[in-house]
Amino acid sequence: MTDTTTAAAGSGSAAGPGARERSRGRFRDRFRDRISLRGWGGVGGMAAVCALTAVTLLPLSRGAGNAVTGPGPGSGSARSAALASPAAAGESCTAPETSLPPSTAGGPNIAEIEKRGKLIVGVDQNSYRWGYRDPVSDDLKGFDIDLARAIAENILGSRDAVIFRAIPTNQRIPALNSDTVDLVVRTMTINCARAEQVAFSTAYFEVGQQVLASKGSDITGYDASLKGKRVCSAEGSTAYEALEKNAFGAVFRDAHDGGPADEDILTVPNQLDCLVRLQEGLADAVVTDNALAAGQAAQDPAVELKGRRFTSEYYGVAAKLGKDDLVRRVNHVLEEYREAAWKKAYRHWLADDLPGISGPPAPKYRQP
């Protein structure tokens, strides 16, 4: 049976309850009665479950690397594998999605995982279709969960040889650098700033930022229609970075963003928290990956994607810098996964909400 634990609650100070925890307590009380709704119950059911879960997670200490800035990667997803030279020291980052060539060889990090008998993976439990906790079975499910199990099976011979640790968006990098997890498989966008802090696999999914709002809203997309609107995003996300660069006059910051006294209304630990704010009238729009937004729209028929996606980004599996043997093994798994297994997972989890995707991005490898 798969072990499932939680780590890194979100965003409150580990030093005790503060304004952020009081805010969460109010949300918890507000949504308590909704958990009994049948099925997902739209956002009222699913978001309430996740909002309650989020406040019970074990906190990781806050530190450097919990929020990053920098440009997203370029666009394109050619179907043939490409080779790219590593950037020389001091050279600007132009292709952060390039990674180490795949290998089945062992190494110290693979050996440690084999000795432990479990792969520890940081995941989401709040993103429908990607990584979410089934309210009936209490199991973690989704596209990212399937990929994490495939990696565990390759290294340890069993899809169940994995410990899932639920981590919020802004704790993905700290969880790796503190060795709390071996890998993060959590809709994590590859970009230059993050590639200086963690090691990425090759890309396994192409996405872009998009706006989510109520169907009756006059918001038309990532444009001037956002002026004066309250826009929610996850702390440490590329959506928040995009708003920092150009918010079109929208209000998107909380007081004390990222600190112990953070109000935690517009800048939240997890993407689904934004959907809660939107449905409760505390936000007018959400900016997030279109892949996540599509899943949120599938939960609540009262919201919809607005306009077009305005970036092109790639998801990758992340490891701690220096764990080259583990990154190479993950890339080997992805080589095998890209065909039948990837397409099977896509059809099962994502095709209904993200139709028309023929396959994953082609891998780009660094020259030896």
UniProtKB/TrEMBL annotation:
List, alphabetically, the PROSITE patterns matched.
SBP_BACTERIAL_3 (PS01039)
Q: Which UniProt keywords apply?
A: Membrane, Signal, Transmembrane, Transmembrane helix, Transport
- Superkingdom, natural source: Bacteria
Comp. bias (Low complexity)? 7-18, 76-92
Listed under GO cellular component are: extracellular region; outer membrane-bounded periplasmic space
Spans through the membrane: 37-60
Matching SUPFAM superfamilies = Periplasmic binding protein-like II
Where is region (Disordered) located? 1-27, 69-108
Which residues belong to any copy of the Solute-binding protein family 3/N-terminal domain?
118-353
Name this protein carries in UniProt:
Sugar-binding protein
GO BP annotation list: amino acid transport
Is this entry keyworded Membrane? Answer: yes
InterPro entries from the xrefs?
Answer: Bact_solute-bind_prot3 (IPR051455), SBP_3_CS (IPR018313), Solute-binding_3/MltF_N (IPR001638)
Q: Does the keyword Cytoplasm apply?
A: no
The UniProt similarity line reads: Belongs to the bacterial solute-binding protein 3 family.
SMART domains the record matches: PBPb
